[in-house]
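Can't paste images in this forum, so I'm doing it all in text. The chain is below; anyone willing to post the predicted structure tokens underneath?
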Amino acid sequence: MQLQTLAALLALLVAQVAAQNATLPETPTQIHNVVYAVPEGQNIVQFAGTMRVPHLPHAGFYYLWPGLFLPNYGGVLQPVLSGATGQWSINSTWYYAITQDPAGQQDVQYVAFGVDEGDDVWFNMQKNDTWSITLAVPGTTKQSTNSFPMIEPAKADHIPYAVFEIELWSQVWDFGPLTFTNITIVSNGTSSSWCSDWPYASETTFQVSGVTSTVGNEQVTCSIQSMVLEQPGGNATAEPAPRTSQSTAAPSTGQRSAPLIYFACIMLSLPMLLLR
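Text version of the structure:
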């Protein structure tokens, strides 16, 4: 079974490398998102929920994800649904913009598994000693957990933004709605207004329902029954204020560096698989 799993991972790696040989633009051509921002002095410690895999019209650089942004949008922890190979796959990613120079950026990614239209992918981003991403498709054997040590550990304690995002590189939004359900966002602190306030949206028509919050033990738990990113355009609101004095654009997910990182992760796991 381990060798079959390894073969599947290697096949996915080869497909990813072949798909990403195409030339990408320098930045995403379209970004659509909805953002929840906790107030100054509070930080997010968990973001979990379920993402429904939409239709994939064709192979292309579609990147759909929930994620957690650092202050100033200087980095992002994200499980990314990618359509680059013509088959959806879900990958766990930590991207950190150390500098504006691409040479000073860190991009750590792990291939998780392939998924199909209609699959419900459960995700859980949670901070314990370090941040981790757990992914699973309930009712199947598809499951993965990866930990992400931060370059600057102190920054791991300061994450104010929970994001639902559609990132398109030379593509258009032609796959229908992107649906998230049973969402939980947990922050430290006692103010819960960020949960009940209407979230910021960029170039996105969305519907949110079943929003409730509880406060206890110096934590706020925001529960959202459903978040649907329906189509481009629509109900935008004021952008959340940056946590530092200088705001920067949201970083890209650095997908062009992915094949080398996938290869390293798979090759490092090869001896362990063969020895079991």
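DSSP finds three helices and 14 strands in the chain. Residues 12-22, 243-276 have pLDDT under 50 and may be disordered.
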